[in-house]
Amino acid sequence: MQDTLEKKRLEERPDNRGWKKWGPYLSGRQWGTVREDYSVYGDSWNYVSHDISRSRTYRWGEDGIGGISDNKQHICFAFSFWNHADPILKERYFGLTGAEGNHGEDVKELYYYLDSTPTHSYMKMLYKYPIKLFPYEEILQGNRERGKKDKEFEILNTEAFNDNQYFDIYIEYAKKSENDILIKLTAHNRSGAAAKLAVLPTLWFRNTWSWGYEDFAQKPMLTGIAGSQVEVRHKLFDNMKLYLEGADELLFSENETNMKRVFGKKNDTPFVKDSINDYVVDGVKKAVNKNNIGTKMAGLYDKEIPAESSVEIRLRFSNETHLADAFADFDEIFEQSKNDANDFYGEVQKEVKSEEQKEIQRQAFAGMMWNKQFYYYNIDQWANGDPKMPFKFTGRAFTRNDTWKHAYMHNILSMPDKWEYPWFAAWDLAFHTVTLARIDTDFAKRQLAVVLREYYMHPNGQIPAYEWNFSDVNPPVHAWATWKVYEIDKEQRGGKGDVVFLERIFHKLLLNFTWWVNQKDEEGNNIFGGGFLGLDNIGVFDRNAQIPGIQLQQADATGWMAIFTLNMLRISCEIALERPVYQDMASKFFEHFLHIAAAINNNLEDGNMGLWDEEDQFYYDKIQTPDARTIFLKVRSLVGLIPLCAVEVINQDLLDKLPEFKKRLEWVLNNRPDLASLISRWHEPGKGETHLLSLLRGHRMKMVLKKLFNEAEFLSDYGIRSLSKYHKEHPFSFDLNGEQLEVAYSPAETELSIMGGNSNWRGPIWFPLNYLIIDALHKYSQYYGDDYEVEYPTGSGKITTIANAANEISKRLISIFKEDEEGNRPALQINEQYDKDANFKNFHLFYEYFNGDNGEGCGAAHQTGWTGLVADLIAEVNVFEK
Asked: How far apart are CA 817 and CA 452, in angstroms?
């Protein structure tokens, strides 16, 4: 990458300070999270609801619309709005809780992340706000009336945006320096008549002083000056000021709980968290502090915007004192920041030829950047309560994550979605880092490292899964992501790899690998369990459930462990080039992989171990019953495709540089022919003197690829389905203790409630697993070259190479976001009325997953985490076709 100004900023320091100290680190939703739940029985969704969130002070974080904070979230800034019709200020996004939505939780707002550099030197987003009453009750009622077989009721199903009755509100940030931030809001009235809009840029402190801790006893202070400035005093910061150009009023309150509204108790102060709401919406003049002091404030800009016109509001948050005009150089700085962002992405996208693909990729990167969040969770404090609390805390009958008392998270993390999943998820995060590394390798590496630190990882070696249950088991993809990030970083560093990073991660992954072997291989035979493994409802039954007398052996868990083993082998070899002692570790993982290969591929007669079904020529989960029967759960799903991804290519040149490893490897292959015969063609060097390690040998690989490339099974016009379409006409049925269970193809939202029913793995297209499969296909191609031909699609009569087939799958995935011949984008089918509207059609939503038949977006609408992998696919396709 060329030395752009943004790249130089990134090189100044690798952590989240300096130019990254201020960023979009507010949550999209702090209410309804585990962290804010102090109920007796763990009723997280209802304990702090959307309705109560405006009145109750948060303990563990803050939320807001289009906001920023410092990297430890002491000082927060965001925007609030009022359309002169709503009963409350629009201070935070509205959505349904898990119980309220017919397919689980769901944000019911329209907003789009449009741009951001990695240091957040320039950022831009768009929020669409109705001119008329926001349809809170209609959305709630619309979802109450719908069942699992119905689509979700969205805001676009209401009349809120009919006749262009809405504001397009663009929020932009530009940094002059690390602590000098310019803020611009541009509100467009899209309707044909004048409309009123109150804009309230809001500055506040996260409440750290109310919980009884001596270190934070000193209360910070905001002080208004001359109606156009706010002085910010906090003991952890140098003095800063917020400059507000042309504000009508400055309104001050406190970030303190409204005890009367929340608990029915007397307030210690008349100025509470929702006082500004009461002043603006209800006209309660005494609600705000006329002395212009407090811990929360808002500038009020009450505008009437003419039809099809706009207004602009400018602010500056700075550690510099501007005695003259704080806005004299405002436009110049903004223009320079935009140019810097364009220069940076111009270099990142230099191989991408299509302007449309550049737009998709840049918005995908923007979503990755905007979904950073300050994540704070001290489980010991949370479980025991604080020295001082606003209510009598007597403990919990149900203490979530009670075996993780060591855990103390206090970091900037990449979120799956800051509204729907405003907490890290271990395997999501691993996939995030691959995309993040494309633009900020240091941040990607730190993300991989932090969840392996002693204050995250359990002492027994388990990686915490996600906030609702740290003890759940996510697929072990951390090693895979580590190697991918290392390779990207190495390329960007001119061929010099960061072996220190690799070694640091490797040691922690050893602990995690040992945990898997000890905890998830019940019989010690290298066939693994693991539960749902992040795939929610993909199984016949909840795979987390303990069913008396039933032992579940999982093809995906065993495949994941084979992948983990090969990743550790490859990492060991790389480190061994500088530290030869690591050749011993390479040998260990080579032999472990052989034993897993033997276990998963053995015939059933050989101790009932194997997971390959000769009749169907596919891998399946298997159960063993109390009467020693072995039953395949014949569901053609991603479970059976995961073993395909257990593949690694070792160059002969690398082997020659590692003589001790090479010697041990050859000894094993010569002396254990039973193991050697189970891996693919080790003794036959492939393209460029390479050797292949994979679970699938030639025939089995062909059989799996035949199903993978079959449009009547896994291959959709938009990528690889999570469940074969075969099950649409042939559902799989299973009798479990008299209960008839069924797995049928369901291309979009789930029709079941297994694992909460919030996501679906019975048909839709998921980007992370698609990416993993494509990555594996390219490794097979690296070994076989163009000599190995496949039929793609199956039954088409078209013969091509593995690499071309992988590239074509990538293109199908990218097409989800591209305009088709009619100008429509498959992902945005809910927006059909806006397909030709310039104010809608070019804004992308990176959904959680996609309809397996038509590509429509499903699940979390801003899941730019692993769906952000489309940015990688665009880069890889353009390089491949160069």
From this structure: 34
Query: Residue 866: what residue type?
Result: W
Residues 599-627 pLDDT 10s? 898 765 555 568 999 999 999 999 888 77
Burial profile 508-531: b = 16 or more Cβ within 10 angstroms, e = fewer:
bbbbbbebbbeebbeeebbbbbbb
- The answer to whether 506 and 593 have CB atoms below 8 angstroms apart is no
**Residue 500 pLDDT exceeds 80:** yes
Dihedral sign, Cα of residue 692, residue 695, residue 699, residue 704: negative
Q: Report CA 599 to chain centroid distance, whole Å.
A: 34
Q: Which long-range contacts (CB under 8 A, 24 or more apart) does 486-492 make?
A: 486/571, 486/574, 488/434, 488/437, 488/438, 488/441, 488/444, 489/437, 489/441, 489/444, 489/445, 492/1, 492/441
Other Cβ atoms within 10 Å of 788 Cβ, number: 18
**CA atoms of 669 and 693, how far apart (whole Å):** 12
841-856 pLDDT, tens digit per residue, is: 999 999 999 999 999 9
As a whole number of angstroms, the distance between CA 418 and CA 309 comes to 31
Contact 183, 190 (CB under 8 A): no
Q: Three-state DSSP class for 67?
A: strand
- Residue 488 CA to residue 523 CA, distance in Å, equals 38
Q: What does R_g of the chain's alpha carbons equal in angstroms?
A: 28
Q: How many residues does the chain have?
A: 882
Exposed, middle or buried, 321 (CB in 10 Å: 0-12/13-18/19+)? exposed
Q: Which of 391-400, 577-586, 596-605, 613-622 has the lowest mean pLDDT?
A: 596-605
Q: Per-residue pLDDT tens for 410-460?
A: 999 999 999 999 999 999 999 999 999 999 999 999 999 999 999 999 999
| Spatial separation of the C-alpha atoms in residues 374 and 698, rounded to whole Å | 48
Please answer whether residues 865 and 414 qualify as being in contact, where contact means their C-beta atoms are separated by less than 8 angstroms.
yes
- Contact assessment for residue 656 and residue 690, using Cβ atoms and an 8 Å cutoff: no
How far is residue 117's CA from residue 439's CA, in Å, rounded to a whole number? 8
Q: Output the CA torsion 467→473→479→481 (10° steps).
A: -50
Residue identified by tokens 């693909």 is 357
CB atoms within 10 A of CB 145: 10
C-alpha torsion 446→452→456→460, nearest 10: 180
- ∠ CA 442-69-47, nearest 5°, is 110
Q: d(Cα 530, Cα 538) in Å, to the nearest integer?
A: 13
Q: Is the dihedral of CA 703, 704, 705, 709 positive or negative?
A: positive
The amino acid sitting at 311 is V
Is pLDDT of 158 > 80?
A: yes
User: Is 303 within 8 Å of 200 (Cβ atoms)?
Assistant: no
CA distance 416 to 434: 14
Q: If pLDDT is split at 50, 70 and 90, which confidence band does 321 have?
A: confident
Q: How far apart are CA 268 and CA 259, in angstroms?
A: 8
pTM of the entire structure? 0.97
Q: CA–CA separation, 275 vs 286, rounded Å?
A: 9
Across 287-291, 472-476, 670-674, least confident range: 670-674
Say whether pLDDT at 831 is over 90: no
| Cβ contacts of 319 within 8 Å, gap of 6 or more | 179, 180, 238, 239, 240, 241
Two structure tokens written together for 477? 């993809």
753: confidence class by pLDDT, cuts 50, 70, 90:
confident
Give the 3-state secondary structure of residue 607.
coil
Which pair of structure tokens corresponds to residue 427? Answer: 């395997």
Give the contacts of 471 (CB within 8 A, at least 6 positions apart).
401, 403, 404, 462, 465
Task: Provide the 10 A C-beta neighbour count for residue 842.
Answer: 15
Is the per-residue pLDDT at 792 higher than 60? yes
Token pair belonging to 578: 């500088």
Are 779 and 868 a contacting pair, CB within 8 Å?
no
Residue 660 tokens, joined? 């001790």
